Amino acid sequence: MRVTSSMYYKSIYQNNNARLNKELFDVNRQIASQLKIQYAKDDVEVFAQTMRLDNEMTVLSQIKKSAESGYKISNQSDTVLNEFSNNMTKMKTLLIQAANASNDETSLDAIASELRGLEKNLRVLANTSINGQYLFAGSSIDTPPIAEDGTYTGNDIAMKAFLDTNIQQQYNITGSDLFLGEEVLNNREITSNVINKNLLADYVDLQASPDDLEPLSATSTIRQLMGDTDSVADTTNKHFFYVRGTSSDGTAFKSKISMNDTQTVQDLLNNIGDLYGNTPNLKLVNVTMNSSGQIVVEDKQSGSSKLDFHMVGAVDFSGGTAADVTDIDALDSGETNFQEIIDPTTPPANSLFVKEFVKSGFTPVAGAASNIEGLVYDRTEFSKNGATLSSNVSQIVGADNSFASDTTKLSEVFSGALDGKVLKLEGMQINGTTPFDVSINLLDTGSTFTIGGNTYDFFDVAGNSVPAEEMTYRQFMDVVNVVVTGGLPDGAYGNTANEFHAKVEESTLQGTTFLSYDGRVQFGQQGVTQTAASLAIYDSNSNDFTAPASIATFNSNNALTVTDPKTDLFKTIDMVIKAVEEYKEYPDASRYSERSVGIQNGIAMIDELLNHVTSVHTVSGANSNTLNKALERTQTLEISTMTLRSSIIDTDLAEASLRLSQLSLNYQVMLSSVGKISQLSLVNYL
Fold first, then answer.
1. The pTM is what?
2. Which of 144, 314, 400, 607 minimizes the number of CB atoms within 10 Å of its CB?
3. Sign of the dihedral through C-alpha 218, 221, 224, 226
C-alpha cells in the first residue's frame, strides 16, 4: 500500500487534533468549574467518593444544626437553674433567720413577705421561655409549665438532639424532673404535730401558762407524758397506746402497746420501732422525740415514700379498764383536756384521759368517734376545695415507689391479701341531700359492691367479673364516681356488664373520679363552683384493734411529712412559707393550720429541695457539655470532610494550568507539523 500525504494528514491532524481538542476542552472546563469531573461517566471512582462525602456533609450539617439548637436550650436552662439555686439559697437563709427565737411577729411577717417575693420569682424562672419555647414544660413547649396555683401543667417527655446514627442527647430539663422529681437516695421522715409537755406540773401552772411548761424528752416518764397524778408511781400497765402505721416496704400494722408509770418515753419509742421491724441487730427506722416533745420517725431505707405513723394514748386514772379497749371508738367518751381531768373545783364525769399525738382537723364519717379526732384515723372525709374533693394520702406502688395510675392494680399498692376485705364508701351525693353507705367487697371469686341492700358486680371492659387481685384503680374509681354522682341505687339497674358500663358512662357527665399527679384520689363535679358532695373511703375494720391493719388508707389523720424521696417543689415551698406566716417554729396542731410543718422542719425541707435542684442542675450542665463537645466534634469533622472532598473533586489550578500549557504547546507543534507536511509534493522526493 502506498503511503500518501493524505494519510499523513489524517494520522497527524485529524486523530491528534480530536484528542488534543478534547483534552484542552476538559482542562479548560476543570479550570472554569474548579471541579475534576462533571458527570459520573467522567470518573466513576471520583464520583462515588464525592457522593459519599456529600452525604456525610449533609448528615454533619444536620447534626450541627440539631446540636446548636439543643445547646441553646440546654445552656439557657443551665443559666436559669443557677438563678433558681441562688433564690432557694436566699430562702434557706431567711428561714434560718426566722427560726431565731428573738423574732417577734412583725419580723416574721417581714421575712414571710420576702419569702413570698422569692417564691414569685421562682415561678417566673420556672416559666422562662426562649424563642417562644418554655424551657421546663417537657414537649409541651407552648404551655407555661407552672400554673398560678403552683401545679405543673407540662409533661415528662424528654427532647433530644440528633448527634449521630442511633445516638441522641437530651437537651431539655422537664418540669416533671425539676419540680416533681425523685431523689432515690433520700430518706422519708415524718413527725407528729402535738407538742407534748410535762403533765405532772401543778394545776395552777397548767391553768396559768400551759405554753411555758417543760417539753418532754426521751428520758421523761410515761407518768409525765400521760399525767398520772397518783402519789406513788404505779407499776401496773394502765397506759395504753394505740399505734397504726406503714413500714418502708408498704406493710401496714395496727397494735396496742401497754405501759406503766415508771417506764420512760424512750421505752415507748423503742416499742414503736419494734412495730416497724426494728431488732437489736437491725434498725429499719429511727424513732425519736424532738426538742418540742414531738415523735419523729425516720426511715433508714432510702427511696421509699410509704412510711406512715399515727398514735393515741389512753389512761384510766381510777385504775379501771376504760383505757383498754378493742374498739377504739369506745374511748370517745374520754377527756382530751388534761386540765378538765384534774380541775379540783369540777370533778370529771369520768377519769378516762385520751392523749392525741396527731391532729388534722378532718371531719369524721357518720358513726365514727365524733368528739376525739385522733380516734378516727382514716375514717375521715376528703378535703373540699370548690368543686373538688381530695384525699391526702398518695397511692404508692410498692415495687418501684411510683405513684399509682388508672391501670395500677389495687394489689400493687394495698397491704396484704385483698380477698375477703371490705372497703367502705360513705358520704353525700352531689345533690347534697342523699347520703350513701357502700361496701366494696374484694373477693377473688369476683368483687362486688353493696348499696341500698342491693349487691352488684364489678365488670371489666370484656364483661367479666373482676377478682380482687386484678382490680385496677380505674375500675375502683368508676364505682366511686357512680355512687357519688347518684347513679345508684336505681330500680332500672340490673346486674349486667352492659348496664354497669352504661352507668359508669352516664356518671362522667356529672363528675369525674381520678388520680392526681401525686397519686391522690380526687372527685371533681362538673358545672359547679362548689360541690355539695362529700366522700370518705376506709377499711371496714379500721376501728377494730383485734382485726388486721387496714389494707389501704386514702384520707387519714397521719403524721406530717418532713422529707421524702419524692419532690413537689412549689407545694413544699408554699407549706414552708405558711409556717413562717403562722409563726410556728415546730408543728403545733393547737394554732392555725393543724398540718403546718413548722419553720425548723421547713429548713430541712428547703435543704432537700436545694439538693434536688442542684442534682438536676448537674444533669443540665452535663447535657450542655455533651452538646458543646458534640458541636465542636461536628465542626472538626465538617472541616475534615470538606478538605477530603476538596482533595478528591476539586481541580488543582496550578496542575491544571501546567497541563493546559503542555496541551497548548502540543497542539501548536501538531499544527506546525501538519503545515509542513501539507506543503510537501512529489518534487520533494525527486
1. 0.86
2. 400
3. positive
